[in-house]
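Hi W., the EPU complex you wanted:
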Amino acid sequence: MDYFRIQGGRRLNGRVTVEGAKNAALPLMAASLLTTGRLRLTNVGPLADIRNLGTLLDRLGVNVHFGDDDTITMQASDESCSEAPYDIVKTMRASICVLGPMLARRKRAVVSMPGGCAFGTRPIDLHLKGLAKLGARIELEGGNVVASCDRLRGATVFLGGANGPTVLGTANVMSAATLAEGRTVIESAACEPEIVDLANMLNRMGARIRGAGSPRIVIDGVEALGGCEHRVMPDRIVAGTYAIAAAMTNGDVILDDFPYDSLLAAINHLEEVGVHVQKLDPNADDLRCSVRVTSDRVLRPTILTTQPHPGFPTDLQAQFMALLSIAEGNSIVTEKIYTERFLHVAELSRMGAQVYRQGSTAVISGVRALHGAPVMASDLRASASLVLAGLAAHGETVISRVYHLDRGYSNMERVLTALGASIERCKETKAEPAEDSVPSIIPAIRGAGLTARAARDT
Ligand code: EPU
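Structure:
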């Protein structure tokens, strides 16, 4: 199992291009099940989750080709299979995004229930409710969702839940509705930029979708969709993570392909604590522009609450907490999407952070400096927060189980090394503890020459 060894305290300096978004790419890939046309995605990083979904699509009769230049080409050639098996779905919760497309086109979809993840139960009731509204018959059998239909029929679907709208649920229902008969209206739809990216691509394939990015999406069903080529949007969470890394090391970093428009809440909080995110060209496209990130010497505290987009993203909460742990004063972080998403707290505390958690709220009392320690990565974003803490800490930090990071950040250690960090990937030789290990289905990550392991946390 790989681990990172970080010597902290180096200022980050330099220029980095933000990679394509994992959470956009996954539902875009699943859309290959909606057509026998050829789909070509560009700007897709060599990530474990992307590989895993490629393996699943392959089992579902889609020819998947990973190019050397961050492209994936997909074309369904055998539409007879409609079962997404547990051995793959268990490795990645986001496999659920094949459900809507497969049902709409093949009229039947059996997808193993994804189960919970490291930070909560992660239900899929809203996905199922939405598809049932479109006329799907849904049963739960032996741990599988078994969905079938004749042709789906358009309907008005309300997708709000106790913690807000559902992102992948919106992706599932919106994708399925493209082939339904008549008009579907999704109310309380997720407004995340990844939904807009998906709608843009589906429209290029021949779908008729309006309103993506707002809480009301209207889809007029069509008879069939074709192929297309699509460039995946930049990853807002990766962009935010590297911006925080620059801030925590008192660095000076330029980020190209920065999705400014998708990160307004995070930028607002960064500015509150004394981080400057300056657009290099004020007239540049806000969907992908170049920004320079610098910070004041002394960071200030803030109060933040995670919310559905355009609010502060839950996927940046852990990283922001690492930043607040070295701000001067007390900050308050409330997690409203996944109330148990605090696995990073105990590990950050091992590095000297002062965090007091009560329920879904944590009070962070900023310290002068963190100190290096051996810590353990537990899920994707929690792992990222430990890397950030390690970069800013005095001394050496050793982070085990970095396979979590490989799911969502392409070659993170190479990116950070290029910016001047001292971070090295090492191989552990001794035997693994068995209880929480999940077997790998990924032979190798392209380009990085690394083996990665998968666990369900996204
Ligand atoms: N929820 C329900 N019922 C459902 C679905 C969701 O109650 O049927 C609840 C969830 O428990 C949660 C809230 O609704 O409290 C939002 O969950 P959502 O369905 O939006 O999450 P998701 O679509 O499964 C995606 C990202 C996550 C990200 C969330 C929230 C992907 C592959 N995953 O998950 O990303 O945290 O949206 O923004 O797009 C990550 O990248 O680290 C990650 C976890």
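The chain has two domains: 2-18+299-457, 22-231.

W.
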